[in-house]
Amino acid sequence: MGVAVSDWRLAHAVASAGQLGVISATGIDTVLVRRLQDGDPGGHMRRALAAFPIRRAADGFLAKYFLPEGREPGKPYALLPMYKQVVRREREEAQMLGAFVEVWLAKEGHTGLVGANLLTKIQRPNLAALYGCMLADVDYILMGAGIPRDIPPVLDAFAKHEKASLKMDVVGLEEGRVEYISLDPADHWDGATPIPVRRPAFLAIVASNSLATMLARKSGGGVQGFVIEGPTAGGHNAPPRGEMVLTESGEPIYGERDIVDLSQIAALGLPFWLAGGEGWPTRYATARAAGAAGIQVGTLFAYSNESGFSAELKRSVLESALRGEVSVRTDPLASPTGYPFKVVTWSGDAHAGIPRKRICDMGYLRTAYVRDDKKIGFRCASEPIADYVKKGGLEAETTGRRCLCNSLMANIGIGQFREDGYQETQLLTSGDDLTTIADFLNGRTSYSALDVLDFLLAGSVAAAAGEK
Q1: Residue 457 in 3-state DSSP?
Q2: Which residue, 165, 268, 320, 353, has most beta carbons within 10 Å?
Q3: 463 or 221: which leads in pLDDT
Q4: Which residues pair with 201 in a beta bridge?
Q5: What are the residues facing 376 on neighbouring strands?
């Protein structure tokens, strides 16, 4: 869905109704900072921060970023420092706090299950985000967009408040050199006794039988299940297996090699859920018949009243969808990660075609590389072209790249304001199901998360009938 689209409100609504509600923890530190600078309407951020067990961290963060009256109109948001291999304690704690607040609010007042989703490729903030989620008693961690084989040992270590490390991906490392990202909870507790935490269940998001098999066999029991995601899902997609071949319109072509054999997945003996184009009652029944525990749904929930998309954006897209004037394109270039990324075009987009000056001031998708002096540097194919080339990147790698960091913040109404008066505009991502959402809307331009659940669970009748 994007940054904080599946936010605490949506996850809370879904979990309260007896299903697994999942928050997005990507970029959640910046989301918290901007919510506080906008005055924290309703006091939700402050209520959750009051529950954070490391009081020094929460109190200092609140004092630094909370603006009781909100920002002055048009004033830029204060930025967090961009993540590097090693950051100051306060920077790690900003990430912990963002993740903690989102999970804590999603779990507040009910006994349902709440999960958190992170992207494996965004390595540097992940350790602090995982620890923050666990301090809030998250039930599940879901990770894809890469190979999350190192995550189960991290969860094991954090459950005991022990130091955890991840091998860092760095372009240009000489043979034999290994770089790590580490986090030691003891650095944050200042000698105090940490609160007990649970080790959450871990679900790996995969798009191939080989990856699922490897994770199941080599995790030592650390993987509790899989989400099998097809190329029709929103956000980042796994690239096609083999050589990338594009259609005439420039979209990747997926073939037989990209189809997951569900019988092989079932044979691994772990529960699995299907994702990507699954948001229909009949798909739930089909998934159950194939041995799946259920389905993961994004697009329908993304436009519900409880999602993090701004109300204006949701209304504009749904009105366009009712007119049949919305399309979803798998763009092989938009994301600086190199992964294909779904991009939505709709007739009601008032910001379509507005040029953007290249600015990289958030840096979540930056790639680590070895500089000429052998130190680690960071670059992004969406940053100013001259800067990228100066850092050793190829100019051809910048073609078609978009700034996902700033655009996805704009999707949820907290886009950055620039000193020249420009405000960052959205880059909307959704699954292919958006093109047929009018069949679900039945003329509506708004609906609730419970409406989605009622619609989907009608398939349980068909599923039960098929099992008899």
Answers
A1: helix
A2: 320
A3: 221
A4: 140
A5: 370
Burial class (CB in 10 A: 0-12, 13-18, 19+), 269: exposed
Task: Look at residue 468 and tell me whether its pLDDT is greater than 80.
Answer: no
Determine the average pLDDT of the residues in 183-208.
95
Buried/exposed 107-132: b ≥16 CB within 10 Å, e otherwise: bbeeebbbbbbbbbbbbbbbbbbbbb
Q: What is the CA radius of gyration of the chain?
A: 21
Q: What are the φ and ψ backbone dihedral angles of 205, each rounded to 5 degrees?
A: -90, 120
Kindly indicate the confidence band of residue 458, based on its pLDDT and cuts at 50, 70 and 90: confident
Q: For the whole prediction, is pTM greater than 0.85?
A: yes
Half-sphere exposure of 459 (CA within 13 A, CB side): 18
Q: Are the CB atoms for 398 and 384 separated by under 8 Å?
A: no
- pLDDT(463) > 60: no
Nearest residue to 453 via CA among 301, 318, 227, 289: 301
Q: How many CA atoms lie within 13 A of 17 on its CB side?
A: 18
HSE toward the beta carbon, residue 171, CA cutoff 13 A: 14
Asked if the model's pLDDT at residue 335 lies above 60, the reply is yes
Return d(Cα 6, Cα 306) in angstroms, integer. Answer: 9
Res. 274: pLDDT tops 60? yes
Compute the average pLDDT of residues 238-249. Answer: 85
Domains and CATH numbers, the chain: 8-467 (3.20.20.70)
* Contacts by residues 163-172 (CB-CB < 8 Å, ≥ 24 positions apart): 164/127, 166/123, 166/126, 166/127, 168/85, 168/123, 168/124, 168/368, 169/121, 169/123, 169/367, 169/368, 170/368, 170/369, 170/370, 170/376, 171/367, 171/368, 171/369, 171/370, 172/369, 172/370, 172/392
